[in-house]
Amino acid sequence: MASKKTWIWIVVAVLGLCTMALFAVAGLGIYFVTSHISTDRTSSSEAFRRFDQIRSKFEEQRPLFELDHRQEPRMTRTLSELPDARERPTELMILAWDPDDERMSSIKLPLWMLRLGRNNIEIQHDGGFDLNALDLDVEQLERVGSLLVFDFRTPDGERVLVWTQ
Predict the structure, then answer these.
(1) pLDDT at 132
(2) How far apart are CA 59 and CA 70, in angstroms?
(3) Domain layout of the chain by residue ranges
(4) What is the pTM of this model?
(5) Among the four residues 64, 99, 122, 126, which has the most C-beta atoms within 10 Å?
(6) Cβ(51)–Cβ(43) under 8 Å?
(7) DSSP-derived 3-state class of residue 22
(8) What sign for the dihedral angle of Cα 141, 90, 103, 33?
(9) Greater pLDDT, 153 or 47
């Protein structure tokens, strides 16, 4: 009889530990998202200033991707032809502006996280194109250093800037 009670307590304890571990993982996930993604209301002049500020870091650099006449991303040069950098980037940054809602979204994605389980970066944007189509190799991005990956603008005023730092 005492043996059955012991097993019940063991099962309850294991279930309790699993539940606590699940809450801990969920809490870490929420913390990660809130610390790496931010969305703020911003005036158009402030949004333009922020894009210009970031773009000025790459003023002599052409984006790695540009849109062709069909609004499809096209590589301007291959990553393999770019020289190795002294300092490796640690994050892929995405800055997006939605003029209809006057919202600026900023996303910081650690490159180590993008490597987990996949060799290519997969990001979905609700706007005019799918960033998955860029088909970037994380190891190549790290090798070439800080780089302007994409500068996307729509006729409606939406803008997305992607770079590594």
Answers:
(1) 61
(2) 26
(3) 1-39, 42-164
(4) 0.78
(5) 64
(6) no
(7) helix
(8) positive
(9) 47
